[in-house]
Design goal:
Layout (H helix, E strand, L loop, with lengths): L1 H12 L11 E2 L4 H16 L5 E6 L4 E6 L7 H22 L3 H11 L2 H17 L10 H17 L3 H31 L3 H40 L7 E3 L12 H13 L7 E7 L5 H17 L2 E5 L1 E2 L19 H7 L2 H5 L18
Parallel strand pairs: 3-4, 5-6
Antiparallel strand pairs: 1-7, 2-3, 2-5
Amino acid sequence: MYKQILTNMHKRQNSKEFSLAAIRYKNERSDDQKSLDCLARVLSIYTKKVCVAIAYSEFDDKYYISYNANGSLNEYNSFKSEVNEIIRSFYQHVHDNNYTIYKILTTSILTNRRIEEKLRNSIINLDDGYIELDSDDNDCDHEFSKILSLYNSAKNTRTKETRLEAFDLMCDKYKYLCQILDQISQKLETTEDETTRVDLVHNYSLIKKSKSALSPFYKVYSSIEKLLLYFNTHEGIDNKISVINNRSGPNNQKHTEMCLLEHIHRDYKNRELFTHNIYIGISKLACLPCKTVIALYNKYSDDNHALNIKYHGTHGKVYENWEFPVMLLDVISIDGFVSALNPEDYNAYAVMPMGPDTTSSDSDH
């Protein structure tokens, strides 16, 4: 029953008549919680996973990590090995200042052909297709054309300093594109001329794709310094990690935060707890079904003084291949889940005709 409802919601969100649907919001987070989101984003990019989540339990000082699976038999062992490599490299930098973490993360992005192809295509299309408007900054085209030069500089250099400088400047370009998207959003709210609106939407779409292509560079590079501070004050994380095998596949996708919630629920349901907080850091914002499950689970926890799950926020999108976490059926019924899918959550459509880039949690944009 819920599958058909999610399919209908997914189709409606992606129909041409509507913008990208749903209410998007972010929760307040502590610095440590922000660091868990950063680590999830770094691991997602390094391990080439669509989504990674890290749950931290204050009760026993443990970290649970999982991922959106693709069904590969060797996936779990490979993911676990790569997680250990990243954790170890952060500590090597903290203790020895050897820059290994910078090297392996920047090299990972620069040697990823999918990321390179997406970046080159989007920037070329932006450079060729951007429509200059009277209200534009005259330096727009100049700023766009620099992005690929910075990428080539980072990829072709053999010196650490030149590569890190190029990454730093690419992060500036990412922020610049975010600013332009905000400016176009504001113009669309006040512009009535239909021809101008069409041009603005066209530019918005091109810039949004380029911003998305630059996102991995920004996510990783801007997260490293934050994570070094976290690892400097949190010793022994490598001995506190449990990597949870997500056995689902792409057609029936158990999202990574649901995989962790099932595991945590099973671990803690027989313990004597009183409002024990667990934060789940996620490389993306949570989808609407995951948000709904967490809200229902917290309602149950409030009644039983057990667990309280916190997370960054939701982008409100719905995926039709989403799989219900059946190990939570002793807490949440499928009927209760369906009832809680509030139509207002997907009837509230964004102002932007092309829809904001809602799934990302890498910045305030």
